[in-house]
Amino acid sequence: MKRPIFTGSGVAIVTPFTKDTVDLPALGRLLDFQLGHGTDAIIVCGTTGEASTMSYRERMRAIEFCVEHVDGKVPVIAGSGSNSTETALALSRDAERAGADGLLLVTPYYNKATQQGLIRHFQVIADGVDVPLILYDVPSRTGVTIAPETYAELAKHPNINGVKEAGSNLSNIQKTRNLCPEDFTIWSGNDDETAAICMLGGKGVISVVANVLPAEMHRLTELCLKNDFVAAGKLQLELKDFCDAMFCEVNPIPVKTALDLLGWDVGPLRLPLCAPSEASLAKIRTALEQQGLLV
């Protein structure tokens, strides 16, 4: 029986940058904030962490730093996906050597692999490491959706722990839950779908919003895991406007902007990402004010 790498709220943490590289002291401060407010796992070098703009050396140093700084308090899960199976395997092995407790593997983007190609891609990586994998289904970014039948095949692998599901297809999630064994874990990949996915058997969320509201996202998943879906649904609705604001432009533009407005100084976005429009900036400010974080 496979155990989930984590349950609850895992933060897809932003990567603070200086003009030239990763700002490790700033990253340390963000990690302390997360650990102090109930976050159940750290996911580093994912989409929110702008991993696609980071050099190989920067990615490995960020992963190593998170492992060292967190020091076993919660699992550290490293994004190590690529549209090249060979590159993803190399990243995964190096992240494992850096001490990551698990790996987050996005579907190969741009190539648009078939379902059989997805199976072979993930199996090769799972065969090549000794830490658990979380698959990442995010068709809005990759152009590829993992089918429920594909999950059922991949769930047979002892190193494939589950999936971060950001496909916004609750019907497919139901089919996946019915086809896969109970020890194949589903995490929400969209903050505003957390309660709904947990109601269908999900075990938590890999969250963007938790960068700013870690205690609230931890509380939401805590209610879900206690099967208190009345209270969880109420909190989910209360957080809806904030979730929308954090995705008013492509992630992580809004959340990094929010953190900067709150004084965290997470540094510049890396091109091709850029500062939000004035209209989006106003939405972000309003969302922070409504949470009582800006006056």
Folded structure, characterized:
This protein has 295 residues and is α/β, with parallel strands linked by helices. The protein has one domain (8-226): TIM Barrel (Alpha-Beta Barrel), CATH 3.20.20.70. The protein has helices at residues 24-35, 56-70, 85-97, 115-128, 139-142, 148-154, 170-179, 194-199, 214-225, 229-245, 253-261, 278-290, and strands at 8-12, 41-44, 76-79, 102-106, 133-137, 160-165, 185-188, 204-207. An eight-stranded parallel beta sheet has the order 7-6-5-4-3-2-1-8. Helix 9 (214-225) packs antiparallel against helix 10 (229-245) and helix 11 (253-261) packs across helix 12.
Topology, element by element:
Layout: E1 8-12, H1 24-35, E2 41-44, H2 56-70, E3 76-79, H3 85-97, E4 102-106, H4 115-128, E5 133-137, H5 139-142, H6 148-154, E6 160-165, H7 170-179, E7 185-188, H8 194-199, E8 204-207, H9 214-225, H10 229-245, H11 253-261, H12 278-290
Parallel strand pairs: 1-2, 1-8, 2-3, 3-4, 4-5, 5-6, 6-7
Helix pairs in contact: 1-2, 3-4, 6-7, 9-10, 11-12
